[in-house]
Specification:
Length: 210
């Protein structure tokens, strides 16, 4: 399985991977807007604060119909582009300084909407991060995607996915894991994870697989 950004690899890249027998999961940001991606204009009052470390990307008010319409457009694009599944990112605005008074219930409703609409289009869907809400979402999502599971000691949070027989795909970035991945891989196997050690830039300069 390859998790790709279809705006980077393009439709031809997705077709090539599928032609090689790969399953292709397509990334998009469900809970934020990125001006540099050519995202459609949204009303200013649904666009919030920048994400930490990403000044060109801003949180969205996931309670709003305009944001849900954006998600539907992204899912339609994924299906039309030949994606087998999707990885909707930034689905934890309620736990971040988004600029909106979002509650955990708001986030659960939005994330369930994303999963439901993906399934309506025949797409598998992964839960990205949002660890605190895993118990309420594990039944809605087909797999989980996490970053720095081992780095931050998040070993209990995603066990419901493992217990349900659903894949947990984890990326680690710390230099120590690149230099010596053996202990990391042993821990990943114990936890039932699929772990990769990757560069933060995702530039293909190296890849360590457990």
């Amino acid at each position: 399985m390859y998790d790709v950004d279809p705006r980077v690899v393009g439709a031809a890249g997705v077709r090539r991977l599928r032609g090689e027998g790969r399953r292709v999961v397509c990334y998009f940001s469900a809970g934020s807007v990125e001006a540099f991606r050519g995202d459609p204009a949204l009303p200013p009052d649904v666009v919030g604060r920048p994400l930490a470390g990403y000044p060109d990307e801003r949180w969205l008010d996931v309670r709003r119909a305009e944001v849900r319409s954006k998600v539907v457009s992204e899912l339609d694009r994924a299906r039309a582009g030949g994606c087998d599944g999707v990885e909707p990112d930034n689905v934890d605005a309620y736990a971040n300084p988004s600029g909106f008074p979002l509650t955990a219930a708001d986030q659960l409703a939005f994330n369930r909407f994303v999963a439901r609409e993906a399934h309506r289009r025949g797409l598998t869907v992964g839960l990205k991060n949002d660890l605190d809400q895993v118990p309420g979402l594990v039944d809605e999502f087909d797999f989980a995607v996490d970053e720095q599971y081992h780095e931050y000691g998040e070993c209990a949070a995603l066990r419901p996915f493992v217990a349900a027989g659903k894949p947990v795909l984890n990326a680690e970035y710390a230099a120590r894991f690149r230099r010596s991945p053996e202990a990391l891989c042993r821990a990943a196997r114990r936890e039932g994870l699929s772990t990769l050690v990757l560069p933060v830039a995702l530039d293909g300069s190296f890849r360590r697989a457990c």
